[in-house]
Amino acid sequence: MRDIDSVMRLAPVMPVLVIEDIADAKPIAEALVAGGLNVLEVTLRTPCALEAIKIMKEVPGAVVGAGTVLNPKMLDQAQEAGCEFFVSPGLTADLGKHAVAQKAALLPGVANAADVMTGLDLGLNRFKFFPAENIGGLPALKSMASVFRQVRFCPTGGITPTSAPKYLENPSILCVGGSWVVPAGKPDVAKITALAKEASAFKRAAVA
Fold first, then answer.
1. Given 93, 95, 181, 186, which residue has the most CB atoms within 10 angstroms?
2. One short Pfam family name for this protein (predicted)?
3. Which residues are identified as catalytic?
């Protein structure tokens, strides 16, 4: 069983995926892994998401997790589908306690100091800073990180290929979440692979 810290350290960019057509699941996963991005967050926003997760897990090297996990029931469903980690847009006591009890690798969303403090009270110290660009971006995250020295973040929301390297220069940031690696529409495997190769080459700060 992986912990969320080890998942966050596998690649500098965690693709955030919305799978509309189940037929696209395997080609997208194969293209991302071929490009060096093996940590895949499949958001639970579409009817085929759980089935897509099962298919993507069959791709050698893929570490597949569920995004948009809103409550304990959704976490359980994602676990049954074989997810290795779980990402939520925010944090509730019910979800946090359930994840801790299940020893699930949860990356909960936080937007302010109170959210982080709630997570710390639950025994969590790895968070998604979300929606990053809409809540102050890198300057806001730097301010938060200076207070919570033991915490590490994955900023997500509005991150681009231009801004991602700047975020990754900060030692409190283990990875960034991004949807740009898989453009909307029918997947162009060659393009996805090229974008993944570019993203996988981003340098990260030396993080303890």
1. 181
2. Aldolase
3. 41, 128
